[in-house]
Records
---
Amino acid sequence: MTITPAYDLECIDIAKSFGDFRAVKDVSFTIPSGSFFSILGPSGCGKTTLMRMIAGFETPSGGDIKIKGASVLGTPPNKRNVKMVFQHLALFPMMNVYENIAYGLRCKGVSNDEIKLKVQDVLERIALPDVGHREIHQLSGGQKQRIAIARCMVLDPDVLLLDEPLGALDLKLREAMKIELKLLQHQFNTTFIYITHDQSEALVMSDHVAIMNEGRFEQIGTPQELYHRPNTSFVASFVGDSNRWSGKVADSDGTGGKVRTEQGLDMAFSAAAGQTISTGSEVDIFVRPEFIRTIRENDPAAAISDGDNRMSGIVDSLLFNGANSRVLVRGWSGELIEADVILTGTDDLAPGEKVDLVWSPAQAMCFEKTGAA
Ligand code: ATP
């Protein structure tokens, strides 16, 4: 009986040092079959090094990598059933689309008849059935992306690695390609591992995202988990926008308490499930702009619950961006606080106006300082 592994990829304590420098530090994770997994982190955190070890271009200093349950350590890149799409795509400019896609099959000695069937099938799956005869320079940026993916997928890899493939595209095309890539991954039902430093790409496309920082994974979760229940200050600040205050816990009963911020503001917070924050701890507090309500100063009609955080300030500026418009409010101690608002053009807040900012303790995410964030 053959047992199909539940995971296409397993990394176990994988590490890489360059001399004394530890670029990847004992990272362990598994990727369920047929999922879209992103590795998101700032420049230099070790994403590409990790990807290159999975592809076989770099030898780990420690740990193991298993694909479909079998270790691939010692297996050269061309013998691993892993394909990689690079930012520059690496299409062959002297070959037309058909020959670009057929190339890998020809190298494997596949017959011309079979190549024809496979290339046509993959062109149909990427919704470009009629471009086989085109030269590469005759394709749009988005079409080139799809051909680069088709060229890999025609070889039926266990895992497709994508190293910031949208990085070179203009903003509009990048937005369109995010959705496109997600649809393509569904279409092929193959595990895609995508590395990026762009959180909006990772959140939109992925089933699961790993947040990488200084060679380690800080947290792995669904986009929703990472956004709403970050485990660390680094994740809270790297994923999504947040207002951030530092301070000291003035009192805490285990489920929540009050922080005195460096600006002298008392801020109530509720601890997340399983989180213990002790009195006296140095902490960071994060509040997302969409959870802060901006109300005209002392507005009697504003519904404010007992225990809500409330601070006053003066409108500094309004940033119109359709439904995602934002107001920047200068707090009394000088800090700028961002809150999401709906700007309609009538009766909007105006710079210089006094306002109250209100948010619930449950929306204040609190983390003890580790020194690494
Ligand atoms: P970016 O998003 O900028 O591509 P990254 O997260 O992919 O960054 P890596 O390219 O993996 O980061 O690099 C991680 C760290 O390892 C960096 O400090 C880099 O300078 C270092 N590094 C990478 N390759 C080598 C090498 N061959 N020799 C020495 N140091 C290296």
Note: The pocket of adenosine-5'-triphosphate is lined by residues 18, 21, 23, 41, 43-49, 197 (CB under 6 Å).
---
Amino acid sequence: KIYRASTTAPVNIAVIKYWGKRDPTLNLPTNSSLSVTLSQADLRTHTTAACSASFPGPDSLVINGAPQDISGPRTQACLRLLREQRAALESSSSPAPLPSLSSFPLRIASVNNFPTAAGLASSAAGFAALVRAVADLYQLPASPAELSRIARQGSGSACRSLFGGYVAWERGGEGAAGGAEAGAGAGTGAGAEGAQARADDGSDSLATQVAPAGHWPDMRALILVVSADKKGVSSTAGMQATVATSELFATRAATLVPRRMAQMRAAILARDFDAFARLTMRDSNNFHATCLDTEPPIFYLNDVSRAAIRVVEDINKAVGRIVAAYTFDAGPNAVVYYLAENESLVAGTFKADMGSAAGWDTERGRAVQINGG
Ligand code: DP6
């Protein structure tokens, strides 16, 4: 007998960025972060998990048809935690015992509905879908928040893809270098040694929904695929280098982000686009400033990214108020947030301006409109 479960998970794009780990093993972040979930009609990962006593081991994972190496600690941590929960269910299930799925080899297959060549980060949707597919297969009674705790260990940003709408990843106070978010030493890892004594499993570092997508149904996002190339410095390696060497980063993590998290939450709850947009742009720029402040410096933005920033600035100046906001992750692709009422202005200007911008790759560069709801 083969047991099976399928699920999907959306892509999310942070407006307050996660950058920095206070505990790389448990993948605990230095600061909290907040993201907007993109429409699954446009960008999502679909994952099927299957297990059977008749499958030859070991576990396997195929993404878009390509077999993956899953021996790394990230995937192993997720699978181990899910198996442990299943094993606990099985051992408490007498007198009607459950099949011992936890001991069967797993076969997991994922497919993205967006081209891998689009150069969009897919690890967030990927790990979120993987964790939920296996949790469904194992019939775990886990809530999305509990699953987010597991997905976090696959890839930090994945914990925010277990919800729709507006999602916060709370850094939590447990684990190495825990303590209050705004507390002294938060962010630099400097307190890591002292905190080892009370280090635990970091189980309070998980995602929660700030507001469902329907709370702000007019939110839209435009994705500008500047480059489909694999990024030069991976986010995992980049953020470790930033934590280790950037002096700007300590201020960002200890002071700026805690304040902005509160302001962003309030802006979203009040549907205040002006505040949402300003915070989004400033936080993206601050994150990239800490990358530049890293030794050696990390450059994720290129000339086309900077041209996109100028287009947003020009649109906002022409209208006389802020109607568009850009943000960039660990790569040159831009995501531009705007409200539906400004659709033709924002999308139209990007098409007109970016299509002819110097350095714009007209072959691969394209704007994909997605629904932020
Ligand atoms: C810039 O979640 O990819 O996109 O936890 O090491 O897998 P790991 O990092 P990852 O980092 C994402 C960084 C970011 C900002 C964000 O999504 O918050």
Note: The pocket of DP6 is lined by residues 14, 17-19, 27, 33, 121, 123, 155-157, 235-236, 329-330 (CB under 6 Å).
